[in-house]
Specification:
Number of helices: 1
Largest sheet: 9 strands, antiparallel
CATH superfamily: Jelly Rolls
CATH class: Mainly Beta
Radius of gyration: 14 Å
CATH architecture: Sandwich
Number of domains: 1
Oligomer: single chain
Helix content: under 10%
CATH topology: Jelly Rolls
Length: 113
């Protein structure tokens, strides 16, 4: 067992993201996880992630911890709130935006490609 305290997590800058801070909680280097990585994303009002992942074989699970976010896919857009989980299949593109006036936090778990 390895424990990663969010207070000790290091920020990183994922590509195509803006108005947010991402903290890596688990990956091969940090915990030895072989099949997935996990991070916590904090989005300011207006912050988000541009359209991406249509070319990615990774599976992604988003869990909204606080606030609300709009997730857009080819099927439309959905507002998700604290307590909601979103699964994105391989090659399913998405964008994310915080349209509210409050910060939002989301746990991100993704398989390694």
């Amino acid at each position: 067992m390895k424990v990663m305290n969010v207070a000790a997590a290091k920020p990183y800058n994922p590509p195509l993201h803006n108005g947010m801070v991402a903290l890596k909680l688990s990956d091969k280097a940090l915990t030895g996880a072989e099949k997935f990585w996990c991070g916590m994303s904090h989005f300011l009002p207006g912050g988000g992630a541009d359209w991406a992942y249509e070319d990615s074989p990774t599976e992604k699970l988003y869990f909204v911890v606080e606030g609300e976010l709009v997730i857009k896919t080819k099927d439309g857009e959905t507002t998700v709130r604290a307590g909601d989980a979103v699964f994105l299949a391989p090659f399913e593109g998405r964008s994310v935006i915080n349209k509210s006036n409050y910060p939002a936090s989301m746990l991100v778990v993704a398989t390694n490609s």
